[in-house]
Sequence to fold (505 residues):
Amino acid sequence: MNVSDLSEQEVFRRQSLEELRAKGIDPYPAEEFPVTAYSTEIKATFQDDTPRREVSIAGRIMSRRIMGKASFVELQDSEGRIQLYISRDDICPDEEDKDLYNVVFKKLLDIGDFVGIKGYVFRTQMGEISVHVSGLTVLSKSLRPLPIVKYKDGVAYDAFEDPEMRYRQRYVDLIVNEGIKGIFLKRTQIFNSMRQFFNDKGYIEVDTPVLQSIPGGAAARPFITHHNALDVSLYLRIANELYLKRLIVGGFEGVYEFSRNFRNEGMDRSHNPEFTCMEIYVAYKDYNWMMRFTEQMLEKICMDVHGTTEVTVGDRQISFKAPYKRITMVDAIKENTGIDIAGMNEDQLREVCHKLHIEQDKTMGKGKLIDEIFGEKCEANYIQPTFITDYPKEMSPLTKKHRSNPDLTERFELMVNGKELANAYSELNDPIDQRERFEEQLKLSAKGDDEAMFIDQDFLRALEYGMPPTSGMGIGMDRLVMLLTGQTSIQEVLLFPQMKPEQKI
Fold:
């Protein structure tokens, strides 16, 4: 890096780095620093009448007040913050070591540096639980100054709050903005709760390929890459559905996977080109069973994370308490538009779209047209958890025909806060019907629909060996985390959301 490109602070910190080395202090030591305690636990367990407790902690300097021979420092570790009291005479008892305090601590250490601390816990005269420092070790020198967020009466000043900067430099966001780390800790808690729910029922977690020769299992535009050794084009996974069904064919009764999926489509507050989906498939079940199962699962996760089934998203209160409302797609469209689309052909659906001022084009078949009507006029109205059921056959090429109406399928989508959260079927296990459905998708592709499904010949071969009646469900984990952490943007629950290339670093 050219020195002329550095700020005054960055130049000063590099000079401090070299001065530390000149004094024989390694600013990036290799040896282990033993950590025996953490900030939140220290403060939670301290009692004034207990014996003096010696601790060894490590973290980042977030603020300091130098007062001659003594200083107060705020240290941030992986759990929170705690005050340190540092006395020159304690850390430099020998007269010849006084320079270590006067120069090293007072002049060469900066906010953002990592230090290891040994000392004992006490309460200051102001009543704050702190660590009285007896030893300080430099662990890592920070060469860039942190944006310092100041708080007064619960209000943040000089905040690091520009969304693009926060998402691009998530590491800084996590350091300086309170509550950000908690979102991602809760994300892990949600995943663990769901995994435990499945494991307790005996279902098996599996892994399926991310690089696929055919992008199957969903209607979406894939990312394409190339494998040099095989000299073939491959696709990043848009869904793992067809692989999980192969495992049901192979004899597993219940399998699930937390799947990183990739779709070469738009980006907005609820879509990212790579996202996490959980898909589960259970033999000998149908979509009615899966609705009950989904309610039980979401109730459990809410209780594990919040201790209640009520969550707040913006100014809305959402209840995940079962049972959830159930309404067919046709009835949902009728409920929200006053139009009954049952039995309509493609031309009639185009007339409906025209009447409702919904954009359409010649590549759209019946399924796409119905999907557009529902998406534009209905979806946003379902705030409380609602199962939208019995989708038209054209919209669901992997779904079993409805047992009472062959024009419909046994499918549901769970809508929450105006967005799809989960999608589930009674899985199509008739290989002849499945082949015909795939061939219909080819016709849509020929019309220009670049989200139409490919024909997966190996999957059809697997079905011909026989797949038991099965129900499957996929749930958007990022959207679930948004709901359970009260966030309104998917970028807030992804550690590293997709961004445009940075013009200059």
